[in-house]
Design brief:
The protein has about 160 residues and is α+β, with helices and mostly antiparallel strands. It has a single domain, classed as START domain (Alpha-D-Glucose-1,6-Bisphosphate, Chain A, domain 4). The protein is built from three helices and seven strands. It is globular and about 45 Å long. The chain starts with a strand and ends with a helix.
């Protein structure tokens, strides 16, 4: 059975503002890393068929939790679908020697207009079995909270 992890959050920003936060490498590096991690993007090609590499570094040294090194997770992301202001689909693979963390996970971000902004939902399918479900849920929730803070700040700065 395919594993599915999901999370959702309402944000006080229009779908086009949220969508733009997925296309800017600096923006992604600021909001995507979950709590306790920092992110660095490289090879950013923000178009359908493009992608990026993200290196997430644990702030506490990782304690051996990293999937690539003891304190880092390196992911290679292919952008497989972009539907402006509606949907973003990523194919994500960890750079790892550990079979439990290997494989291609699909992350589908759906943006749905709401009265007060946008509902942002994330469905992660084919999650590698080595990723702890509780840790992943916390990471998804944290990324959504970071995205909300980022886009709500951007929306208030432009409005």
């Amino acid at each position: 059975m395919r594993r599915l992890d999901r999370a959702a959050r309402d944000v006080a920003a229009a779908p086009d503002v949220v969508y733009t936060a997925f296309l800017d490498g600096e923006a992604l590096a600021s909001w995507l890393p979950p709590t306790g991690m920092t992110g660095e993007l490289s090879d950013v090609d923000a178009r359908e068929g493009g992608g990026f590499t993200m290196t997430l570094t644990y702030g506490d040294g990782g304690d051996g939790r990293g999937k690539t090194t003891a304190d880092t997770d390196v992911t290679r992301v292919e952008i497989t679908e972009l539907e402006p202001a509606r949907r973003i689909v990523w194919a994500v693979e960890f750079d790892t020697d550990y079979p439990a963390h290997a494989g291609r996970m699909t992350m589908t971000w759906t943006l749905t207009p709401r009265d007060a902004g946008t509902r942002v939902a994330i469905d992660a399918t084919d999650v590698p079995p080595g990723i702890d479900p509780e840790d992943h849920q916390q990471g998804l929730d944290a990324s959504l909270a970071n995205l909300a803070a980022y886009v709500e700040g951007a929306a208030s700065a432009s409005g």
